[in-house]
Amino acid sequence: MKMRNGMYLFATAIVAGTMGLASCSNDEDVVAGGEASGVANKVTLGVYVNGGVNKKASQADVNLGGAIDDISNIVVVPVAGGVYQVPIDFGNLTAITGTAQTAVKEASLLTTVNEFMVYGNVPKTALTAGTGAFGGFTYSVASSQKDDDLADNDFTADLCGPMALIYGADATSFSTSEDATTETFWNSTGVTWATGSAITTNTKGIKIQGVNYQVGVLASKVFENTKYTETPEFNTPEGMTALTQVNWDSEISAKMNLTGVFVEGQATTFNDKLEWSGDAWLADAAPSSESVDRATHAEEAWENVTGKIASVADGETQKVDGADFYTVVAPDADDNIVVSFQFQNNTGRILTLSNGTLVENGKYAYYSVKLNKKDAKNVFTAATTTILNARITDWGNGTPTPPTTTDLVIGVEFDVTWTQGLSYEFDI
After folding, report:
1. In 30-185, where does DSSP find H-type helix?
2. What is the top-level taxon of the source organism (predicted)?
């Protein structure tokens, strides 16, 4: 089953077993809770994955390449008349490249169930199935510690780290079958399915589809095309080599190290209703195993730079090769979202920014762009990649902290079609 927009999804299925009906007085646990009532069907529940799902921090980790990874902590919560029932814990699902994955589990399901909440990859510290009726959950991403530079410059905003690559669905519409069996459930023929049907005592199978990513991904790559001038932004301390056009790249650009990306206005909390809340700057560092080190030097006219990242077809899905950061982001309906790239000055010299701020050796400067909605599409959308290519043309254009507003936006933006979401290009 392919997910719309090139991303893989997993689907949950409930299949009637061979033991027929069971009453609520049966010795076995019944998937029920609260005030709901109804006949309990003995059912077998199965989870299906076609393709792979991944976590964060590198291309393979956000399912933008061909890698396959497991889904962790899969929980299905039946809902009857708005009342949560006993959650069904599927544990982890091990994925195998090129093979559709399935897992089954037996439980008793009330015929009054008319909705299912499905979750995947929500950390167990936030979501545990437990016993008894489901009590909901709140998952808050951990706060990030401000570095000394941010504290020194009176940056008061909260910081958080990236979310897990969480999945979820609130399925109020699903397919039912009166002839499905455990053995035939996944067959492409021989089983009749009706969409949007209610569960009855004759129901033998239920398919829940549309379990999707609840987060998006910002794939970003940074270039630089800075030049030596007669009055460079960097000083030359006593004993150091004077800067020239010849040594500018080795002395300056190679030693301005790209260390992180900051995203303004990110939600920090996700709950069982698939709702987001909170507001903080997301701080994401490059994975230690894939150190970015520096921006890619590119002297061509910006429209002709060949190393820009883009979303391309990779079989049944999409991938984005060569990004510096693959950052898991919460959906965001705001406009004018600032993204700042953090560089550490390791040149051994003092950098004087355009606003007069001094960035000493070992300290940080931030180079920022502003992302705007286009054609009513949000900058960050669940199950969608946002692609950002940016090039720094002047090291003096930085700021000592990530700005909440910026005038450093120069360039164009355009739609591309995880699916592909919006794509942005900037010369800074």
Report:
1. 148-152
2. Bacteria
